Amino acid sequence: PPGVMAAVVAEEHVSEYEVLRRRNILRNEEEMRRLGLDVSALTNKALGRFAPTKQSRRVVVVRGPPREGSRRSERLAGLGAAEAPPLPAEEGDVPGGGAPQKKRRVEHSAPASASSCRNLRTKPLSELRGRCLGAELPAVGGTQFKRGVMDAIGEAAPTFSRMSGIQEWRNAVCLFVNVYGDYKNAFLDGGREITWFAQPRQFEGTPVIQRLIHCAGGDVVVEDDDKVREETLEPTEVLLFCREEAKPYVFCGELTYLAHDPDRIPVRFVWQLADFDTLQTKRPFTSLVDACNAILAPTTKRKGDSDLSSA
């Protein structure tokens, strides 16, 4: 809408990465509103130490191409950071993983035990895709749903926090989503994208949030202990597991970062499902999308929207 995209380039100098991030988060907010989900009601303004710093908005210099497999807007290709124009929303624009991205002052995680998943690796993604993409992973003992996933995907059985929906490995981060109850992590565009909210105690500077933001790897600008430096991050595979009530988790493949909103708590992410073309042929996955649609359908119908799958 007129005026909305003006906010995307409100600053005098905005990097291509920032243009795409803001465009995607605004588009997502519109889609959430269409589904009857008010982002402002689901989140709080990030204040104090939770707020993004001014440095996190500074112009960064493009140092390399986007991560292979990502799409850049053709109209932005070849433009410098200060030349990025206001653009209409486009589906699926992916901020390039090769560009330095923004880090705010970060916190530091406590050391993990040797058996922790944080010190272990998952099996190769190619193996996981071939063996269990779009399939249910049986629970251990019939009720330990998350343990069934962690044992199945790890090179060794790990220790982990059963209560956390975010599990960090050395090479990956797994997101666990329950598609029932007070549900707000909405599938969009028929399951091609998912809106995901981090935990309430996390903010842009939380280490795992930084890892998710920069999952494509590459050069980033880091503000740490009042010092600014550049560092190169290794890529992190972000893997999605969703389940319906009383059912096992379904492996929904790898996620590609589209955007996050650092100004609200919990931090809202917009992810693209990299394996959607295969997932859409798998009944366990389409059942998850149907369950999401059923949860949100009453709200959407009140707003005159009859088909969530086209969201």
Brief write-up:
This protein is an alpha+beta fold and 311 residues long.
Number of helical runs? 7
* Secondary-structure element series: HHEEHEHEEEEHEEEEEEHH
Largest sheet: 8 strands, mixed
- Helicity level, as a percent range? 10-25%
The end-to-end distance, rounded to whole angstroms, is 17 Å
What structural category characterises the helix and strand content?
Answer: alpha+beta
Q: Based on DSSP secondary structure assignment, what is the total number of beta strands? A: 13
Outline:
globular
In percent, how much strand structure appears in the residues? 15-25%
**Unreliable residue stretches:** 1-12, 54-92, 97-105, 300-311
Radius of gyration: 19 Å
What value does the average pLDDT take?
78
